[in-house]
Amino acid sequence: MSRTDDISNLFSRFGATSDSYHEFDSQFEYPNTPPAQVKASVTEEVPAPVLAALPPVAPVCVVLAKTEEQAPLMSTADVATPLRNLLAEVALARQAETQALQAQLRAPQCKARVVALVSAKGGVGKTTLAAGLASSMRLEGGKTLAIDLDPQNALHHHLGVESGVTGMGSTDWGSHLQQGYNDVQVLPYGLLNDEQRCTLEREMSQDRHWLARQLERMELGVHDLVIIDTPSGCSAYLQQALDVADQVLVVTAADAASFIALEHTDRLLGAEVARSYVVNQFEPDREFSRDMLEVLKRRLGAQLLGVVVQDHGFGEALAYGRNPLAVPARSAGGEGVLLLGEHLKAALQSPGVAEKSAP
Amino acid sequence: MSESNSAPQVAQSRFQRWAQSLSDHLDQWPAAARRALLAGTTVFCGLLGLLIITVPFEFYAQCIFAIGCFSAALVLRRIPGRLTILIMIGLSLTASLRYMYWRLTETLGFDDWVDMAFGYGLVLAEIYALVVLVFGYLQTAWPLRRQPVLLKGPPSEWPVVDVFIPSYNETLDIVKLTIFAAQAIDWPQDKLRVHVLDDGRREDFREFCEQINVNYITRDNNRHAKAGNLNEALQVTSGEFVAFFDADHVPTRSFLQVSIGWFLKDPKLAMLQTPHFFFSPDPFEKNLDTFRSVPNEGELFYGLVQDGNDLWNATFFCGSCAVIRRKPLMEVGGVAVETVTEDAHTALKLNRAGYNTAYLAIPQAAGLATESLSRHISQRIRWARGMAQIFRTDNPLFGKGLNLGQRLCYLNAMLHFFYGLPRLVFLTAPLAFLFFDAQIFHASGLMITAYALPHIFHASLTNSSIQGQYRHSFWNEVYETVLAWYIMAPVLVALVNPKFGGFNVTDKGGIIDEKYFDWKLARPYIVLLTLNMAGMAYGIARLAMGEEDATTTLLINLLWTLYNVIITSAAVAVASETRQVRAEPRVAATLPVRLTRADGSVIDGVTQDFSQKGMGLRLPQGVSVPQGEQVQISLLRSQHLSLFPAVIVFSRGELLGVQFDALTLRQQSDLVRLTFSRADTWASTWGSGQVDTPLVALREVSRIGFRGIHELFKASLMEVRSLLRRRRVAPSKLENIQDK
To answer: Cellular component GO terms, alphabetically (chain A) (predicted)?
Structure first.
């Protein structure tokens, strides 16, 4: 049930539509009274014990992965006994069969909640933001994955993962996940040569649900969360990300170039894709930046999910390999990311989204 | 008046098409010819009507005529549409005026002084009832059913609106709700100015308003009560429009966007009123357990009467849930201060000054009904006294600026409150014959039956057809009977001396700790009930003893007394105050809600009801959460999801009761936005009640009457018992009837 429902209910009583209705999300300045703040901190602590109970989900992925990986292992092994060859063939055939069956029967289903960060224009801090969200957001009782769909292969750096060699290209994602800040599981884009990249992109353009299948194979649970970083502008990666995303978060900056790019974003995403926006790199001490934000607010209305201020701490943290959201050093930008995460979470958990994705 | 204004759900029948083509045809005539036709038809109808009313019939002829008319009405009743209503009104007027003509010309030959006193008293009461009936028909024959005009321009062109929330002695808990909701009205933030007008000058109010950034206005005196309070605030504010909400009327977020449109369309429009809707039961509904099943006292007024007034451009201002354009209001000197019903008087002044007033029958705010009978009664006393004051000081029949329709609508609104004395006359009239053998009706029983019954039956049937959705048959009598005794004296006093008496406020939102019988308030009805019961017993005894010549008359009077017994016993039932468990009434509404348990698991459910402090939830089948668990309740609004920490205070199966923990101001505001300020909650229950059928209504009233007698009996027993134990049962007194 969306917020406009009550308006359209009312307006339909006298034969009008709610189109002419204006919603105002006026934010009032209220002081926070202490009792509720105490409450809030209590509830934030709650997820902690749940996390400990998580691992049981992961091993399942690993076990499944092994059976698949053994096929190539055996064929390359020196002991090429006929029985093993036959077995490998059978295994391959079965695999192909099940794959075909899956493709036939249904569109792949990913139970996890997926957030895709997109932008028409580069340099708006998409990757930084993706890393921030991935390391700070977690749905109760689930794990968070960060998947890098950007050939720049930068996301893992932001999450404190050293090696980013294998990733996208591997057939089995589950086994190539690496642990980043705050236990986030990172899948880097990986180092691909041109040929490999072309193959990958061809695969994507041929199979609309390529990413969805990959995610499905990882057997994620309903409480798991996937954050996807995409390259700027139009690409096969973007289409894949849009295909699976529950929430499309458009990252924009409070400047003219980003504003112009909004048009392009609309074309890029098409009319049907529901999206929300975040204004990144906002500089509250500059009047121009404030004005730009106001313009964006008017343009985006309720779609504007959050504002993150410009924070050089992020760049420095990247340089020194620190988690920018680590508690003692948390800055204004960090707060913004956390707040954005809360809003995203709320939007994901809202009954409306649940209903939409259930059938 | 276009056809589309009348009930749109009725498809055009062949007859309607024929009527339409006829009127189209007439439209082509020259103006003079049309005028002549109109005048001719009017004169002809007038003469014909006069003939029908005055022609004398003997008994059988009158019977046949009456049966014919009534059968016609019964058939017509089944055909929906405004035309049939108009014909039924015509038939009813015929029967009633025939009766009155006959009554005045044939039945007044009284023999002695006793007869004459009782007789003329009854006739006067009957004339009053007839006048109110006729004006009522005029008022309600054709409700305008105005539709809202939506705003076309961009928000930057919308006008500035001041929202006034006057308060005197309501608690902050109640007023908070209204303030948060007023802030959440969907209107550009820089053009919406919320002002709390605190005549109680309370520190907690000032502090609260400061915290949430709402203007707080006080004055150094309390002159002219609410009206003075509003006027004072008009001096220090400047918006083009002013929206008024009583401290306990919570506006929806769509209030202004639904109501301002008409002002932009009609530059002469000075005031637009929306219904007063109550989300808690009034004392009638509470004590009789008829909440939402029988339309309440106010529903007729806001469902039908105001809509009918609107046709004549005579909508009253009701003090709350309304928008007024500042300029005309200042022109007439602000809110009227001469009477205690400043609202209706202000509207009268605006109409006199040549401005229009409008009514929009879409509930866009809801409030608390008065929660005890004594407060309900004192509120009605104030209205009645104020109306009598206007009648005396600024009579709508005289003075400049009103057209005939407006004069009659205002007049009827005032006359309506004079029902006290006539009602008591009707409730006691048959006793005059039963006890004293007074011949108040100088006619044979059969003739009375033949003339009076058609009058009564037609009036009931027609009113039931017009009002069925908004008032059930016989309930009017119950409401009036409860109030009659109490408003009679103040109205008479105000008629004699309009300056006498002060202003009393009705304060709301209390708890009635235990069920009790309001002896003091019930006393008048108990007296009436006892008298009528005694009269009935006496009459039956007389019948049994066999008074040869008086059998029919006795029977008629006994039937009348029986009816009076039913009505008064129902009135007695109202005085039995039932427990009101929650300090805050809950609103029934089904909204999707998500519950996050302490262990992080999530359950989707729906709300059963909500209040400021808690919610009733229904979870999916087979799911339950134990009592005492700390949970988070989330309600959805666009992409912002609001979380409210709460604790389970009640759990049975999949039904839960939760109580919110101490919420921050922001959370409280969010909660109000997501619940009370929803645009459709009140509108969806509006006018959707059961439609009246007179016989069912009579059965219901009789059932309640039996219960009233039962309660009275029980309460008497208790009283006797406690008297024996020398313990006093706490009685209530009529609060601040005439304070100050």
So the answer is: cytoplasmic side of plasma membrane; cytosol
* Residue B501: predicted pLDDT: 58
**Which pLDDT score, from 0 to 100, does residue A32 have?**
65
CA proximity to B270, closest of B208, B329, B352, B185: B329
Q: Find the CATH number of the domain harbouring A159.
A: 3.40.50.300
On whether residue B625 sits in a domain, the answer given is: yes
Nearest Cβ partner for B600 among A47, A276, A350: A47
Task: Quote the domain boundaries for residue B229.
Answer: 155-369
CATH of the domain at B652: 2.40.10.220
List, for residues B245-293, the tens digit of each pLDDT value. 999 899 999 999 999 999 999 999 999 999 999 988 888 888 888 888 8
Q: In terms of residue numbers, what domain contains A203? A: 113-357
d(CA B141, CA B304) in angstroms, rounded, equals: 9
Q: How far is CA B138 from the centre of its chain?
A: 18
Residue finishing a domain among B313, B336, B369: B369
Return the structure tokens found at B631. Answer: 């949970």
Assess if residue A15 is contained within a domain. Answer: no
pLDDT in tens, A99-141: 665 554 456 677 888 899 998 888 888 888 898 888 888 888 8
Helix (H) or strand (E) holding A277, with range, is: strand A275-282
Looking at the structure of chain A, the number of domains it has is 1
Asked if the model's pLDDT at residue A351 lies above 70, the reply is: no
Alpha carbons A178 and A189: distance in angstroms, whole number: 12
Does the pLDDT of residue B7 top 50, yes or no? Answer: no
Q: Do B641 and A349 touch (CB under 8 A)?
A: yes
In a domain, B502, yes or no: no
- Cβ contacts of B698 within 8 Å, gap of 6 or more: B473, B474, B566
Q: Reduced to 3 DSSP states, what percent helix, strand and coil does chain B have, rounded to the nearest 5?
A: 55, 15, 35
Other Cβ atoms less than 10 A from the Cβ of A57: the count is 17
Whether the CA torsion A171, A175, A178, A179 is positive or negative: it is positive
Report the residue of chain A nearest B589, measured CA to CA.
A6
Share above pLDDT 70 across residues of chain B, in percent, rounded to a whole number: 92
Domains in chain B: how many in total?
2
By C-alpha distance, which of A143, A174, A173, A146 is closest to A160? A146
Q: Which residue has tokens 């008829």?
A: B290
Judge: A36–B645 Cβ closer than 8 Å, yes or no.
yes
Q: For residue A343, which residues of chain B lie inside 8 Å, CB to CB?
A: 639-641
Q: Tell me: ipTM over 0.95.
A: no
Phi first, then psi, for residue B316 (nearest 5°) are -90, 155
